[in-house]
Design brief:
Length: about 260
Amino acid sequence: MTIAINARFDFQLDQPTDIILQFEAADIPEQKIISANTRMTPTDAARVPAHDGVGERVLFQAEGKIEVSYQAVVDVQRLVPELADLEQLSPHDLPGETLDYLLDSRYCPADRFQPFVEDEFGGTSGGARVQAIHDWLVQHFTYEQVSTTSTTALDSFVERRGICRDYAHVLITLARASTIPARYVSCFAPGVEPPDFHALAEVFLADPHTPGGGAWYIVDATEMADPAEVVKIGIGRDAADVSFLTSFGASQFGDKTVSVTRQAG
């Protein structure tokens, strides 16, 4: 599936301030960057690998109005098996790089949810457990802008509402509480309403094509994004690792427009 992306945003810095941006499609095996063009003020920025080497972070110090424009065309080549058919791997069989995604993180206090997942989803495991968590979120949550940058999965669980960021945090938390590695994904995806940067979860389960192996699988409890069409920007333990804008000082966000469309083959 070929996806076209057009994103623009700007923000104001009243004094010299250090900034980290992460907004470009990642160059990874499951998605091929056909073309990409970034225009940004300032132009003298450094680039470093992002979390786990997925995508890049852009670092600079600046003052005044910062404008960013990004256009890309991406060919997504991702296999999407039936989630409920995938088996769970025991912790001692997991690759070492997945273990961080079993642990609590800033927005995902998984340990506190272990009794809940056993009471609510007992009798399921692996992909069937993740599917049950997804369905529970669909049934019990309302998509509504009520959260802030400090809202955790526990807050959202109590409120039973939130935006894509909050759905992802709750799904990640409940998966980790079920001993399934889960991570946060920032992305572009067609069909997101309102159009914006999107967030969803990935879980690590057995790979049916590789005996004894595993792979990451996308899950979107908002049901707005089709995993086969998602263009990943970056991944992390939770939203703190993949914010598209991190400011080490005061900043005033301005305008933002994001358009993500399917292109004819």
